[in-house]
Amino acid sequence: MSAPRRMVLVHAHPDDETITCGGLMARAVEAGVGVTLVTCTLGEQGEVIPPSLQALEGSPDLAAHRAGELDQACAALGVTDHRLLGGRGRWHDSGMVATGEGIRAAAPADLGEGAFSRRADVDLQVAQLVEILTEVEPDVVVSYDATGGYGHPDHVRAHEIAGGAVEKLDPLGDRIGLWATAAAHDEVEAGLTALGRRAWLPLPVPPVADLPTVPDATVTVRVALGPARVRKLAALRAHATQIRVFDDGREPPAFALSNDLAQPVLAAEHFVLLRGPGGAAATLGALSA
């Protein structure tokens, strides 16, 4: 197996890249793979966790602060090529509403001008991503599945434009592997069970049914993080407005978002091949070798 030459990751907001792909990016950088991160918005609608920073919530200053967090996370992962889709401020966070079904979300009723998930803008967004992919010439593109992982409208749109851009550049599907991030059900469940035994953990652990997982058998590639998980934890800590990290040296470490539910930072990240050449699975899997 040979590692990919160049990889582009398309994510909706700062912190999404680290939660789902931080280990993959760190391992790719270590392997000499060219890594380009495309972030579509600066997460302007994000909730802010630390009391010392809560004045940023809903403030026009939040975007700049989260951009700084993203810079720190990229530095922790070793990623030096980072782009904002369409340039800074072109697209903003659409926001979301809870569905009441575990950790799952849906689009708000009203989307303002410039909201990333507005239907009218999808063709322009695809064109902007095509421009980046044409320059970078990746053999691997990573984003989300059709549900956006947990339903956030910006994640769904990132999936749509990643797929649209790859199809335009590789209509026969024989050059570019298009991948979706995933969470393997049984590994997540084992991690949650281990966290449930940690009496010191100050937050509740959700049932696995509340989390967006996929059957383990549907995962195409499991990328073992090894020492790269240390870099992923550092990148998670960099997103301080959005994430709390709990690590006492026992397995697994944990993180929590603004919902105050503890989730495991697993020793592997999981990916599903959506489209691409037959050897694409071996190519991405080489990063675990």
From TrEMBL:
<dbReference type="InterPro" id="IPR003737">
    <property type="entry name" value="GlcNAc_PI_deacetylase-related"/>
</dbReference>
<keyword id="KW-0479">Metal-binding</keyword>
<keyword id="KW-0862">Zinc</keyword>
<dbReference type="InterPro" id="IPR017810">
    <property type="entry name" value="Mycothiol_biosynthesis_MshB"/>
</dbReference>
<dbReference type="InterPro" id="IPR024078">
    <property type="entry name" value="LmbE-like_dom_sf"/>
</dbReference>
<dbReference type="Pfam" id="PF02585">
    <property type="entry name" value="PIG-L"/>
</dbReference>
<keyword id="KW-0378">Hydrolase</keyword>
<dbReference type="GO" id="GO:0035595">
    <property type="term" value="F:N-acetylglucosaminylinositol deacetylase activity"/>
</dbReference>
<protein>
    <recommendedName>
        <fullName>N-acetyl-1-D-myo-inositol-2-amino-2-deoxy-alpha-D-glucopyranoside deacetylase</fullName>
        <ecNumber>3.5.1.103</ecNumber>
    </recommendedName>
</protein>
